[in-house]
Design goal:
Elements: E1 2-7, E2 14-18, E3 21-26, H1 28-34, E4 39-43, E5 46-48, E6 51-53, H2 56-60, H3 71-74, H4 81-90, H5 94-107, E7 111-114, H6 121-130, E8 133-134, E9 154-155, E10 167-170, H7 175-181, E11 186-191, E12 194-198
Parallel strand pairs: 1-4, 6-7, 7-8
Antiparallel strand pairs: 1-2, 2-3, 5-10, 6-9, 10-11, 11-12
Length: 200
Amino acid sequence: MLTIHVAEASPEAAVLVDGAYVAGIGPYEELAAAHPTARVRRWPGILTPGLLNPYGPELLEQAYHPDPREADRFGTEPITGERARALFRADPARQGASARRGVQRMLAHGTVAVAGELRGRAALDAVRRAGLAVAAHRPAALPGPPSFSPVPLVLLPGLTAGGPARFAVLGVPDRAALVRLGASTCVATVLGGRLVYRGR
């Protein structure tokens, strides 16, 4: 089924999705007129190609993401350093569940690709299952400490017709606001044409 994704602040950059691929890009009115039976998803903010998070190993292998049911014991923020290593040593099965929760947090921040050498099966499986792209190399100069919304944000190159339907919608009026407010403004993430994250 054809789907048109259009964001309020960037109607000139609507995306027509056919399965896992981008079938067209252009003004919403033109795409809607050419494909009147397409389903339409309307979003607030701007539609972007999505973000690359360069901290794959740090966030998915070296940090423990607590289960919400563990919030009373561990809080809700990622646990790092020796404390995370001790949790993984005590119960290696935690790594898979933690990596999956870490990937979900990435998706909630508009991430469509990760960089950094992932070595653990748990993290690799979580990334593959979600459909995140894996960059061959990460930037030589990393933007700062590991974060789901690193500063500066790394936007992927523009979408192309025939390319993978992989993008994000950020709830900001323009790119300047995105730079200022960061990736926590994400309202939707699409991977392989599938809506994998939708903000409330």
